[in-house]
Design brief:
79 residues, mainly alpha, two-stranded antiparallel sheet, 2 strands
Length: 79
């Protein structure tokens, strides 16, 4: 999934914070719900303008962000 199809930034919308395309729903609010253990259904109930694909895009965004922060393969693992 290409999260960029669902998540956008526009200085004129929510001060340029990442939102879901066509909405004013902040990405950080959906990620906070996921972090708190909310299900996709619970998130959709709280943000009815979103789709399941939007929530999956938030997960894909978080995964891509985490991947960028992972240490290189030749870095020793911490114990």
């Amino acid at each position: 999934m290409n999260y960029r199809d669902h998540i956008t930034r526009d200085p004129a919308i929510c001060g340029g914070a990442p939102v879901f395309r066509g909405t004013r729903v902040l990405l950080k609010n959906v990620l906070a719900g996921l972090k708190a253990g909310e299900t996709i259904e619970e998130i959709l109930a709280g943000f009815p303008s979103l789709s399941k694909e939007d929530v999956r895009a938030a997960i894909a965004f978080a995964a891509a962000s985490a991947e960028e922060d992972l240490p290189a393969h030749d870095t020793p693992h911490f114990k």
